[in-house]
Amino acid sequence: MSASGAVALLYYHSLFSRPPLKMIAQIFLLILLLQSSDAKEGSQFSIREATIPEIQTAFKQNKLTSKSLVEFYIHEIQKLNPIYRAVIEVNPDALHEAQRADEERKANAPKSRFGLHGIPILVKDNIATKDNLNTTAGSYAFLKSVVPRDAGVVEKLRESGAIILGKASLSEWAHFRSSNAPSGWNARAKQAVNPYVATVDPCGSSTGSAISVATNMVTVSLGTETDGSILCPSSANSVVGIKPTLGLTSRAGVIPISPRQDTVGPICRTVTDAVYVLDAIAGFDKNDAVATKKASKYIPEGGYLKHLKSGGLKGKRLGIVRAYPYFGFDNDIETLNKFEKHFMILRKNGATLIDNLEVTNYDDIQPLFIGEVIALFAEFKIALNAYLKELVTSPVRSLADVIAFNEKFANLEKIDDYPQDLFLEAEKTNGIGKIEKEALKNLTKASKNGFEKLMKENKLDALVTPYSYGSTVLAIGGYPGITVPGGYDENGAPYGICFGGLKGSEPTLIEIAYGFEQATKLRKPPPINDH
Predict the structure, then answer these.
(1) Which residues pair with 80 in a beta bridge?
(2) From which domain of life does this come (predicted)?
(3) Domain with CATH 3.90.1300.10 in the chain
(4) Is 124 a catalytic residue?
């Protein structure tokens, strides 16, 4: 019964049983008590650590609005971002978008039934948004440039009713500018900080996307990966990251490194939230037509949410490679000992572990991996120049322009703290020549005769690797991977466990990752959220 209903009932009863003055005093006291009780009931919902389904339930029960949700995150960003440097910009239109979502929900608009409707999301600052936000990859060279349109994934997010809260920080140029710069550094936001242990590498390039989610500065985020940049920061910051099959999500409007390896994927606190985001962004995009059309065949009818199954580990065949770099644990005894308990959990929950797997032709495969760097330099120059020419306005129109810009402003404070050696190497390339073609051929061989052979011959559903150790194998072949929080070391630093599979195996990987997550529930928020 509501407070007003209880008071009315009491008042009716009191007319026949209480002296007037005493009655009035008691009614007044009861009103205060009941109002206080109702306020407490309404405030029981906590935004911090809330999942998408929990937030949607709170919306429906009128315990939360999108506006109050966005206001909460803006406040948290103002409080925490000066410490963690995870957000480059907040969308000045975010509150307006939230109010519109609230109105759509009140009107029961069709869009309001989507899972991401009214949910704030941060997108990595190399993903274009056609709004009042900049898209800079953390570089001053791109500041005030104007993109022609939303990135394909952003367009899908808007269609799903998600609120673009802002741009997440990153390792500048997705960590493809300087070999000396630490993970999480860019000229605009400076150094991102791991919220669990400040001295621990936040890892990869989607650092801001992972840190902002881990610290509850946003509900969910998007990252990008060329090699490890979703999986590694997710592992290092105790969150879930999905690196999709190449082309499952559009790369159109993303500042590129390599169309052959670039992917866009969710970084979230739970597997469930990551799957909600994946469902929203996967699919065909005319501006990335070749890759997205090819990968669209992998999307299951009805989407990915149905693969959040209890008991998802039952019957799964999981491979463990202990002795070989790129494929697993690299004979790292300390890491192997740390993960033995995880192997036991996987077995206990119904998975079959195919342990001590041999990569029989490893000596022939291992030298082929050097081709990745050779190919990436040439691909980066070609892809970046094409991206820059599409911009409506920009101070730079080629990689050579970017290099010149950085050299011109190198001595200015807050502009350039690290050399641009990777840019310089890329600028030396001249298209896909004989050397690059050989490198690409070798990478295809490494994928076919390495990972694919290992998976198929052993009939594996997934390969299990620690941290993001398997990222290069997944990257060069365009294969998917999911990392889930695996625990914390003796210093409190997080680490993840990664499940990688063949192209299009996201449904199976989701079942495995969700099964492990539900069996362990290892994630805990960083210490800042305890204060």
Answers:
(1) none
(2) Eukaryota
(3) 52-369+440-525
(4) yes
Q: What are the tens digits of pLDDT across the range 82-119?
A: 999 999 999 999 999 999 999 999 999 999 999 999 99
The rounded distance, in Å, linking the Cα atoms of 89 and 87 is: 6
Q: Per the residue annotation, which of 205, 238, 394, 468 is the catalytic one? A: 205
Residue 354 three-state SS: strand
**Is 205 labeled as catalytic in the residue annotation?**
yes
Q: How many residues does the chain have?
A: 531
Phi and psi dihedrals of 492, rounded to 5?
Answer: 90, 5
Burial level of 154, CB count in 10 A (0-12/13-18/19+)?
buried
The candidate with the shortest Cα–Cα distance to 46, out of 68, 67, 26, is 68
DSSP-assigned states of every residue in 334-352: HHHHHHHHHHHHHHHTTPE
pLDDT tens digits for range 347-394: 999 999 999 999 999 999 999 999 999 999 999 999 999 999 999 999
- DSSP codes, 199-267: TS---SS-HHHHHHHHTTSSSEEEEEESSSTTHHHHHHTT-EEEEPPTTSB--TTBPPS-TTT-EEEEE
Catalytic residue among 66, 112, 124, 212: 124
